[in-house]
Specification:
CATH class of chain A: Alpha Beta
Helix content of chain B: 10-25%
Radius of gyration of chain A: 18 Å
Radius of gyration of chain B: 20 Å
Number of domains of chain B: 1
Distance between the termini of chain A: 38 Å
Distance between the termini of chain B: 47 Å
Number of strands of chain B: 16
Structural class of chain A: alpha/beta
Shape of chain A: globular
Oligomer: heterodimer
Number of strands of chain A: 12
CATH architecture of chain A: 3-Layer(aba) Sandwich
Chain lengths: 246, 359
């Protein structure tokens, strides 16, 4: 069973320490929610694990099934089974959605998808996420609304079938309808049982649609409290004040 | 002898050009040049291509007039011109192709293209090999005719090439100019367009890719002197290497009688590495109060590492990701060329450029 293990992770940005000793273990099939106030370092955790060059790992380890993730390039991490759904997906002008998806699936699976099933699979994925198939010919994320970008991230999640998915505030900026579509997508991936999910969020709202197995409260660059789904209910009622002012 | 004095290099027309690398083109080439140039002509049925004495043939110089010294010297000194004649109403089944291969030395060239009324044709000039060359191309497009003219600069790294492409676009005629500059030490192309009657349409597309040490310069002039004509200029360039230098000058003049003119010009440059330099100067001069549309845009930006990161988080390796982004940058201009063979060759040439430095 695939396991992502983060041990005593310290990360700096521009010589400023943002993560101060993060410990976290996520197994295939599990869903973890990381909840915390703005500026707590939640996104830094996501980008550090994905390998963004702006973040400097000062100490600690990250492994996926025992393999050293920090020694891998960004694309190697993805091919090893990591996926990051971004809070602000990047526009790539001139690269069509269909070309991008096919290139990504080919890279992850190690061979090009069979043309016969590819078109059908792609159309089904678009339909599940309520995205107009005409988007296939558009440039990646260019001119997409905020909600369309998030749905497109989840579409990629479903197509690439990672061992471990980090969803960085995929719920932010979504109206209720889009939130339902996105949550249903994440739940489908979850029900497959082959993907572990790390759901990073500021709000408890999405947890009404995606029930986590574990909740971690993230403040000041580390996990300060852990528990089951009931912890999310407590956060909804009382907010982060208890940990922030402490 | 030319009426144009030897430039000092400080003139507006020359200030971006490293004139010391012109290899003597500011002086007349003795006896019209010692260079060896092989021209392979491939013309479909119904198109005539002749090699003529430029001083004996009235078709040569009917459209072209020199505007600076090198072009003037080339026009005065050229020994042989190629005249391509596409008769009225003709629709050749394939492009007219001129493969110009330089085999060293200095030379002049002149090509005259006449497209008869309501004809539709494509002419492709491909430059390869090594040469020091000053050449002029003049193009006359008859009323209602359509011409796609492609000039590919695929020279060896040491070539020097200066050329003017002067087009006169007839009433309701359509001109598409495609300039692709990839190879050569110093390449300077001046595409110029005038209109012979109302309703003309000119689309000028350009793609260039400069490596370390290359100077690639494109100076465009669209002269709107007839009513209700349309022009679109789209030039995109990529640069890599410490001393890669590109220049794009886009001059558009809308004269007092050119009412209803619709024009837009755009230049975008993508810096793939530090130290490369792209100069971009759009210049729009409007002398009438009644334009349908007139605008320009120019921007030079660095390669966006966030795009690279995004693609790589999807498992795509760095080289493939870079290729996707750069291909994407050129995609909109390339897809408008409308000659599939040229589009495919161009995209694979861009891949080769990227592979060359392993960028």
């Amino acid at each position: 069973m695939a396991t992502l293990e983060i041990n005593d992770l310290h990360v700096a940005v521009d010589n400023k320490e943002i993560l101060r000793g993060v410990d976290l273990t996520v197994k295939q099939g599990e869903t973890h929610a990381i909840m915390g106030p703005n500026g707590s370092g939640k996104s830094t955790l996501a980008y550090s694990v994905a390998g963004h060059p702006r973040y400097t790992i000062t100490s600690g380890t990250v492994t996926l099934d025992g393999e050293d993730v920090l020694a891998m390039t960004v694309d190697e991490r993805a091919r090893a089974g990591l996926f990051l759904a971004m809070q602000y997906p990047v526009e790539v002008p001139g690269v069509s959605v269909s070309n991008f998806l096919r290139t990504a699936v080919t890279a992850i699976e190690g061979e090009a998808p069979k043309l016969r099933t590819w078109v059908k699979d792609l159309n089904a994925a678009f339909e599940r996420l309520s995205i107009d198939p005409a988007f296939k010919e558009r440039s990646v994320n260019e001119g997409f609304s905020g909600g369309e970008k998030k749905r497109f991230e989840v579409l990629q999640l479903e197509l690439l079938k990672p061992k471990l998915a980090i969803l960085d505030e995929t719920d932010s900026g979504l109206d209720v309808d889009a939130l339902k579509v996105v949550s249903a997508g994440v739940n489908r991936v979850r029900e497959s049982g082959t993907t572990g999910t790390l759901l990073i969020t500021h709000y408890t709202r999405i947890l009404r649609y995606i029930r986590p197995d574990y909740v971690h409260v993230f403040v000041g660059g580390r996990v300060v409290e852990e528990g089951g789904p009931e912890l999310a209910d407590l956060l909804e009622a009382e907010g982060y004040d208890k940990w922030v002012s402490a | 002898m030319s009426d144009f004095p030897i430039p000092t290099g400080r003139e507006e027309a020359w200030r971006f050009t490293p004139t010391r690398r012109l290899r003597g083109l500011f002086e007349p080439l003795p006896d019209g040049g010692d260079g060896k140039v092989v021209v392979d002509i491939d013309a479909p049925e119904g198109v005539t291509v002749e090699r003529v004495d430029p001083r004996e043939d009235g078709r040569v110089g009917a459209v072209f007039t020199p505007t600076e010294r090198v072009a003037a010297l080339a026009f005065e000194g050229v020994k042989q011109a190629v005249v391509i004649d596409i008769p009225a109403n003709a629709r050749p089944s394939a492009p007219v192709s001129l493969a110009i291969r330089g085999e060293g030395g200095s030379s002049y060239g002149h090509t005259t293209i006449n497209v008869g009324a309501h004809a539709e044709a494509t002419v492709v000039i491909d430059h390869i090999g090594t040469a020091t060359r000053a050449a002029n191309v003049e193009i006359s497009i008859g009323d209602g005719a359509k011409l796609t003219f492609v000039s590919l600069q695929n020279w060896d790294p040491d070539a020097v090439h200066l050329a003017h492409h002067v087009a006169l676009v007839g009433r309701d005629a359509t001109y598409k100019s495609v300039v692709v500059t990839l190879g050569g030490d110093l390449v300077r192309i001046n595409p110029r367009v005038r209109f012979a009657g109302p309703g003309g349409d000119a689309e000028l597309l350009g793609v260039f890719f400069a490596d370390d040490g290359q100077h690639l310069e494109h100076r465009l002039l669209v002269d709107h002197d007839q009513p209700r004509c349309r022009s679109r200029v789209t030039y995109k360039g990529a640069l890599q290497g410490a001393n890669a230098h590109t220049v794009w000058i886009g001059d558009v003049i809308i004269r007092p009688n050119a009412v209803g003119t619709d024009t837009y010009e755009l230049n975008r440059n993508l810096l793939l590495t530090d130290g490369a330099r792209a100069d971009s100067v759009p210049n729009l001069e409007i002398e009438t109060g009644e334009v349908a549309g007139a605008g320009h845009a120019s921007a030079t930006g660095r390669f966006d590492d966030e795009q690279l990161f995004y693609l790589m988080t999807r498992g795509i390796d760095e080289q493939t990701a870079r290729r996707l982004v750069v291909r994407g940058f050129f995609a909109d201009v390339v897809s408008r060329i409308g000659v599939p063979d040229i589009e495919a060759r161009l995209m694979s040439a861009v891949d080769d450029e990227l592979a060359r430095t392993g960028a």
